[in-house]
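Supplementary Text 2. Reproducibility record for the structural model of the 143-residue chain.

All settings were left at their defaults, and a single model was retained for analysis rather than an ensemble. We include the record here because the model underlies the residue-level annotations in Supplementary Table 4.
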Amino acid sequence: MSDSGSLTVTPALSIPKSELEFRASRSGGPGGQHVNTSSTRIELLWDLAASDVLSPEQVERLRHKLGSRLDAEGRLRIVASDRRSQQQNRIAAEERLAVLVRQALTIPKKRRATRPTAASKERRLSEKKRRSEKKRERRVEPD
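Retained model, structure tokens:
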């Protein structure tokens, strides 16, 4: 997924690892003695504004799409604590960052309005008539 110096997000975009900041801390939650003593939880921070690989438009799009994941300084924050080792959590955090940025930078296609065909309108109306007929036949007529 990445070479030693950068994290590949798309073929056109690679984030230099020098722009990524990693912090290790103890994982929370249930577990045995290992969890309580090992700093395996990884927090990955990436400063969008200070990044050299993003255009201003890309920075704005990421801020708009990922606003809830940004901290007060405008850094994107990813946390990984589901694996047992710090190295595995570091890899998982990098993968999550790449997926998140890739999805946020993808511009969805504009939907073109289409009209239903005459045949589909006819099918819909005939089905409505059949359903109406079926329900009318179920009715109990008062004597």
